[in-house]
Amino acid sequence: MSYLNLGIVAHVDAGKTSLTERLLHHAGVIDRLGSVDGGDTLTDSLALERERGITIRASVASFPAGDVSVNVLDTPGHPDFIAEVDRSLAVLDGAVLVLSAVEGVQAQTLVLMRALQRLRLPVIVFVNKIDRRGARPDAVADAVARRLSPDVLPVQRVLGAGTPAARVEPLPDDGLRAWLGDESRRGAAHPVLFGSAVTGVGVPELAAALGTYLPVVSDGTHAAAPSGVVFAIDREDGRKRAFVRMREGALRVRDRIDLGHGRSERVTGLRVAHRGTLEARSTAGAGQIAVVQGLATARVGDVVGPRLPGDERASQFPPPSYETVVDAVPGERGRLYAALSELAEQDPLIRVRRRDEEITVSLYGEVQREVLAAILQREYRVEARFGEVRTARTERLVGAGHAVEIKKQNGNEFHATIGLRVEPGTPGSGVTFELECERGSMPPAFFDATEDTVRLELARGPLHWPVPDARVVMTHSGYSPRQSHMHQKFNKAMSSTGADFRGLAPRVLAAAVRRAGTVVCEPVHRFVIELPEDTVGPVASLVGRLGGMPFESRASGSGIVVMRGEIPAASVAALQRDLPGLTHGEGMCRTEHDRFEPVRVGVRALRGGAAGSAAGSTKRTCSCCQDGGGPGSNCMVGVVRN
Ligand SMILES: Nc1nc2c(ncn2[C@@H]2O[C@H](COP(=O)(O)OP(=O)(O)OP(=O)(O)O)[C@@H](O)[C@H]2O)c(=O)[nH]1
Ligand SMILES: [Mg+2]
């Protein structure tokens, strides 16, 4: 058997779910054609998706196309749910990039095409909605060639565009078709097809094109050890399920599999996507999507069994730039935290932090927040109250700092000696913990207690934002061995316990961090704006007013200018809001997280240079920070120094 794992990707509302429904109907997998507007498609199955008419979770269905079994992943188009697309991209053999023949190339179309190109994934471009009034299939095909990739070739033309009678006709094969097949299967060129997910025109042709222009995987030998990648986690009746794209070998019920990091689990149930449903099977082979039960510790991104080249891949999209505080009625906070942690397990790009009574979640935007609130209420029966969405800031160490406390000296009431030196870590390096003292000088449990506490405490720096990157070195250690008075039991008052190290470490760390000093950083986005030539001046001054900086504006022909630059993430919403008014509705902007940069006081101007940060240039002492600062205060920047 041959398989094709196919992603349907596009800007929001281009028609991915409608097209998926059509493909399933055409293949005879569903008898009755559902519609997004009627809220009864197969792949938008969540109640929330049906009510809102948008896709929130990627979902899998399977249909036959010739002798190929296609697993289709219908993905969300709204940028707040980009993490779903990211996870799907990890397991695809090819994609259909859908455009609307009316709206043409849109912001998310460009973002997605770039990610597909980086991954060298074969792509068929499908120009949908040719029946809708205002459809301009030829102009859209030109825009695809100009803005997405010059290596595209339309293989059809459209007759009667913009009317319900619109139809497609194959272009004569001028000898290029065989070449296009080869190039397309290796991701180097892309055919352009047309159609309508509403009238069904062009859908049989698209189904037939899948096997021609996209590579298929044959399930090959079952002799190899089973190997695959976990790309999604969800729960069914409270039981965790892992979605695994099989790469090699065959996975069987009752197999014990290695998930890495010393985790070994037994498969207790197995299903595969088969036609419109998930069907119980005893094995799943290469190319199939297996829904596996029993993997209690599985996480998205885990490699099941032996690692193969390409299994480990970085996220194609930047982390969320926003966050919000979440609260529940007293007594429900524990349940709220448990629910959020479960949701974060399904979506690794959501980070949940808890300090004292405050729970914070990171987010891509407002729509994601609304959806999260609805999921908490319906699936977990927790009434969550969300604060305002604000940019997720971080603290960066400015220099090195050192602090030591010796047991039972100078007011140290703990049976523990801890010395810690902190130094700035390179952005993105995370927290590292090293020992400069002898590992054998103390029971390992006390080192572990110190390290765990350090990591926990760095989740909130002195200005209350997380310190994501730091090198922490333990320079001093000491403990009181187990002892007791004659004929008495172990005496806690005389001997060290883990609690002594957990109690002392926050104090030593805080002193070291205070000496090092921290600066508050905010996410900065890179932007690309396409706009009419006569609107460059007003748009450049809008960008400046919002604290951003245009770096270059380049004419790209036909009166369109491409402006590049950077802007604080906090201003992106205002830029998106004001752009249409300044550009006769024609301006199009996409932004992408670039880096964290120290927040400026007063003038929110960024440096004129390219990427890179200059923490040193923004060092200021701010009295309000020393009083606490952080979220909720008016403070924009703070360096706390002893
Ligand atoms: N006229 C016309 N309307 C279409 C066509 N395809 C989809 N639509 C309509 O466009 C709207 C969005 O369709 P969806 O299929 O939900 O689009 P989507 O890309 O899945 O949207 P998200 O998943 O939310 O990103 C619905 O109202 C559809 O009925 C088409 O070919 N022609
Ligand atoms: Mg959809």
Characterization of this structure:
- The chain is an alpha+beta fold.
- Helices cover about 25% and strands about 30% of the residues.
- The protein contains 14 helices and 34 strands.
- The strands form eight sheets. Strands 1, 2, 3, 4, 5, 6, 9 and 10 form an eight-stranded mixed sheet that branches. A six-stranded antiparallel sheet has the order 17-16-19-12-11-20, with no helix packed on it.
- Strand 16 (about 270-275) and strand 17 (about 275-280) form a beta hairpin.
- The longest helix has 19 residues, at about 500-515.
- The radius of gyration is 28 Å and the shape is globular.
- The N and C termini lie far apart (about 70 Å).
- The relative contact order is 0.08.
- Bound molecules: guanosine-5'-triphosphate and magnesium ion.
- Guanosine-5'-triphosphate binds near residues 15, 76, 131 and 198.
- The site of guanosine-5'-triphosphate (GTP) has 22 residues, from helix 1.
